[in-house]
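User: Structure tokens for both sequences below?

Assistant:
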Amino acid sequence: MTTTRKTPSTTPPAAAVANDAHWAAKRERLLARTRPTLRLTICDDPDAKQAVSVAQYNEKQARLLADRSPDDEAAQATLRAAEAELADTQAALDAASIVLTFQALDRKTYRELLAAHRPTDEQADEGYDFNVDTLGPVMIAASSLDGITEEDATTFLDTWSENEAQALLNTAFRVQREERMDLGKG
């Protein structure tokens, strides 16, 4: 799946340009936006996670001491060592981790997928708008930028722990609702 612009480029309306001299540039930026993405990081190495937690704590404590005593060379050296330890442990954690990236689908595709996976009567009675059992693997595959197939997604959902499978599913659905807008100060 690509992250390039999907909005067709057309000539801006003359009235809009007349009302706002910057509309053409603003419009071009709006047309160039990519859909939201979210990342899911998976790490099966608890020691790497623990090492980062300890290093973060040590770095925070060293920073507090160094900030209180800016002329204390030992405190400054301890901070530099703690920062280096944190960088090393973070690099080890990054190397041990698998990062999956998901991108929101365009509205038309998303709505078509929802319509194609109607809830069962039981799911509808429980308030579901779609059949999560059939839509889940499809949504994961469709929004994955890593090439996860529907078969892969089904395998992951069937074999991973409940919480991990739910995290995968939630990320694929959450990116569809990701919002990067603010109403502003008006």
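Moving on to the next sequence.
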Amino acid sequence: MSRDEVVVSGVGAITPAGVGVAATWEGVCRGLGTATRDPALAGLPVDFSCRVPGEDIGAGLGVRNLWRMERFTRLALVAAVEAVGDAGLDPATWDGARVGVVVGCGMGGMHAMREQERRLTEQGPDWVSPALIPMMLPNMAAGEIALALGARGPSLAAVTACASGASAVATAREWLVAGRCDVVVAGGAESATTPLMVTGFQRAGTLSRRGEDPAGASRPFAADSDGFVMAEGAAVLVLERMRDLRARGGRARAVLAGCGVSTDAHHPTAPHPEGRGAEAAVRAALAQAGAEARDVEHVNAHATSTRQGDTAEGRMIERVFPHGPSVTSAKGALGHGLGAAGAVEAVLTVLSVERGVVPPTANVGAPAPDLAIDLVVKKPRERPVPVAVSDSFGFGGHNVALVFVTG
């Protein structure tokens, strides 16, 4: 293995399955949906979502000025602190000028915007918080993480809709290969389950209407899927070069061997029906990794539970991987975390590579009959996963693929 390989040394997550990577992994391996009725959405055509449990997010971190952080930023900070600790790094002793932060977010501070709009309308301009703008900006997750950890290298918000978290991880790899950083804290965060945002997605025809069974509503690759379930959460990976990790005696959880990006240039929201842009991203990631398609044992799919998107992705998987690697989608259990989803799924892919376990796709007994993919269902599958792909797609035609191999 090359001393310049980019490796994952730490992971962190906070999702509807719970706080921490262990809770998230246990939740997806259990194979049960987390969606429930959401009081904030009462009276709407879609009144359920996948929320992170608890309201006092980040209170135990001991971070100053937590009050000024919007919910998505707090989620990101919780995941980042866990990931840095998991990597065995101490921000008090590292060279902060060589540490970068890149965090993807599709929406930004939707809760703050809603609350401050209410104050303006009901109470007047003097009641609007002076912290509104920094609370709602999508880049503030990266900014507040850098501030809390003393990371003074480059920082960036990757905004590629539902591919944002994966875009952040791909960007982090580029920074390390280019020598811009020695450590990069990278991931995604989102919390946009407000009435307006949920209604907007519902009006666009993308959300499940299976309100009689919220926990079973998200059904990736299923014949009877009718849309995704809105979710929130965050996940962060700590990335380093292998030579630096070895020099400090750290542990490589997996190698991020290759990344690929592309754009459909097909439609503002609909994917290319044959997944051609997605295929280009996957093939580019494999080429960078020096891997053949037949080497891939597992695909952690984007698969949101929309028939159009799942069919396009399924066709791509059939075409690129005719040998039939195992396929799973975490969105059956966790819902669709928008800008956080790609990072959450990257963390889960790292764990599959590290542990040789593929979680099941919740709420699905078998893939739709027109999809010839080896979808893992009902229970986890234990098998070696030396090479795995995690793919993510977003409105605007953004496609990102990440290739992880054993470390």
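User: Anything stand out in the second?

Assistant: The first strand starts at residue 6 and ends at 15.
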